[in-house]
Amino acid sequence: MKQKLYGLPALLFSPSILAADMPLNMTQGVTEISGRVYNLHMIILYICCAIGLVVFGVMIYSMINHRKSRGAVAANFHESTKVEIAWTVVPFIILILMAIPATKTLIAMEDPSDADLTIKITGSQWKWHYSYFDHDLEFYSLLSTPREQIEGTEEKGENYLLEVDKPLVLPINKKVRFLMTSDDVIHSWWVPAFAVKKDANPGFINEAWTRIDKPGWYRGQCAELCGKDHGFMPIVVEALSEVDFDKWLIAQKQQANNAEAEAKAALSQTLSMEELMAQGEQIYLARCAACHQPNGAGLPGVFPSLIGSPITKGPVADHIDIVVNGKSGTAMQAFAKQLNATEIAAVVTFERNAWGNDSGDTVQAADVSSAGSSSAASNDSDTAIPVTLPVNQPENEQVKTTVAETVNEVVEEVEAVVLDDLTMDELMAVGEKVYMTHCVACHQAAGTGLPGAFPSLVGSPVITGPISGHLDVVINGKPGTAMQSFSSLLTPQQLAAVITYERNAWGNNSGDTVQASDAVGHGK
């Protein structure tokens, strides 16, 4: 008993190494910042303990030595200047002593400059989307805990509700900058071992950073009440050595190439109803059951039922379209980047035949691909050009057009359409749509940006400077910043339109009009 009593002051005033062994204490983490946060926590704890000991010590001493039974007589004084000064100055000094290390730590936590790697983190109900800048790599990370464990029919695993199908992979000893936003509601990306906890707000970008000291697996979860499956949105980070991280990047690119080849091969495959239903059920339970429920009944007033619904009973093309492109203004996400054509075909088939729907429809990958092509063609009808190449011509028939000549003709036709000059009104209309799709998350709808993170476009040097400089930063991006290259994301017409829009919106009123030919000429 005496050992325990003697041990209490030792724990309170021991070095951080001993305090770190206390099971209920804050963990030190695996980054410099998490270590500084831990040390700050211990400093504040020690100050609070010291204040508590002094205050309660004086109280206990006063109750024992100045009680009435010992004949103590209360002093009679009023408005003591010395006491007033003492209880004002002493707390002020204590607060200053606490504020100095706290301010230093907070400044360090909010300094994402000079990052070696930038990753955009997008939260959505209920998954995380990771995009690696400069590496052309992105993927979704979903909870992988088996539903049998969630429903209690199987024993819970070691990492129950803290396991995902694809972890975020980061290199150690590198400064990693996080840009966080959301597709729908407010989420919060929290990994205690990194001392990183930052809200992901729709329409805004928040910044954080980390530098991991040692390899390993680190887990966290969404720390915001983001909806019914808030507790099913884990975060898993795998930290690798720099060499292993480079190998992982190469492997991911190879996997992407293999997946693309498999997707193309799948277009010529025909799966049976049983195969489609089996695969579709797995995908549905992993991707769709959170909203529409495992039994397809949905949540009345929130998520629609799929049992006998107009979508599952209507045309197959409409069903495919809503899965591929989502539905604006609702929680229905677009799965075009989340699932391949075979997976979309399987889940659509499953939804149209499960829970008593029994439509008998089977959807193949080719159906999804053709539906997607039709959708893309209708969306880009102003630039789509039908091309017919000669196929299987008899040997004795004179081929008037070689393949090379045909390609040249197609290129000339495309350039003729794409490079047509537009009026200021047409450019502004197209530019606004492009801006609201690709630029608004960083630079905001009013062009004001986010001070300290993303520059304002209102009267900025880029906007008021030469058009060639503006074209260069949009087409090629800006190394060392979050400004990515849009040369492969936008057509010349779209590039020209968004630059015209930025140079004339929000009171900039430069009067400049940029045409597609300017963008093509600059790219060359």
UniProtKB/TrEMBL annotation:
This is Cytochrome c oxidase subunit 2. Residues 18-113 form the Cytochrome oxidase subunit II transmembrane region profile domain. It catalyses: 4 Fe(II)-[cytochrome c] + O2 + 8 H(+)(in) = 4 Fe(III)-[cytochrome c] + 2 H2O + 4 H(+)(out). Residues 1-19 form the signal peptide. Pfam families: COX2 (PF00116), COX2_TM (PF02790), Cytochrome_CBB3 (PF13442). Binds a copper A center. Belongs to the cytochrome c oxidase subunit 2 family.
